[in-house]
Design brief:
By secondary structure, this protein is mostly helical. Helix content is 75%, strand content 0%. The chain has a domain at 9-45 and 59-78. The chain is built from 4 helices and no strands.
């Protein structure tokens, strides 16, 4: 896996399941925020509260996180949120 080398088969399976589950949860949460009167800043704050602490905060510059996350939020909104 990126950054830390290869995982044993069961760890890989577990990692991919957790990664998928987390991705779905975050996308659904971002859509809920945006569809219920929130804006991109609110979605960014949700992401910041959920993930931007501890080790991640130490190694990931705030400006980079905000830029990358804002792009991700726009893509989630465009591709996954039901904008009917």
């Amino acid at each position: 896996m990126p950054h830390y080398g290869l995982l044993e088969p069961q760890y890989t399976k577990d990692f991919l399941k957790i990664s998928n589950d987390t991705s779905v949860e975050v996308a659904e949460s971002i859509c809920n925020i945006l569809q219920n009167g929130g804006n991109e800043d609110d979605a960014l704050e949700y992401f910041r509260q959920k993930f931007y602490h501890g080790f991640v905060r130490d190694v990931y510059p705030k400006d980079a996180m905000e830029l990358n996350t804002s792009i991700m939020i726009k893509l989630i909104q465009k591709e996954l949120c039901n904008n009917n």
